[in-house]
Amino acid sequence: MPETSPGTDASAVSARQTALDLRTVVARLLRQLREAGADETITPSQASALARLGKGGVSTVSALATAERVRPQSMAATVDAIEALGLVTRSPDPGDGRRQIIDLTDAGRARIEGQKDAAATWLEHALDALDEDELRAISTATGLLERMLP
Q: What is the value of pTM for the model shown?
C-alpha cells in the first residue's frame, strides 16, 4: 500500500514506495529473463562473464574480475571453465606479455545470442498475455524509465 503522510489523500503515490516496488519488480523480471535464457551446461557466473565479454569485447581476467566484483582467482577459474567449453579463447596481450586477452569464440557468441533470443521470446509471450491498454501502459512506462537513466 502506498505510504501517505497525515493530511494527504490515501490514493497519493509515494516516490519512496514506488521506488521500493519498482526495485522488487525489476529484480524479479531480471531473474526471470536470466532463467528463460539459462543453459544448464554453464553456471550463472560463467554466463555473466560471457555476457560481459559480449557487451564489452575482449578483456583480461583481472578486468573481468573487477567488472563482475569477484576475486581474480575466482574469475580465472570461471574463464578456465568457459575456455574448456570452447566459448572463449586466450591470447597474449601484445602490450604486456604477462597478461592474456580473453575473447569470445564463434560458439561463445552463438551461445550469447541464443540466451538473448530465449529471454526475448519469454518476454514477448508474457507481453502477449496483456490487453492493449496494459501493453500501452508498459510501453509508456518503458519510455519513462528510459528518460530516468543517464
A: 0.72
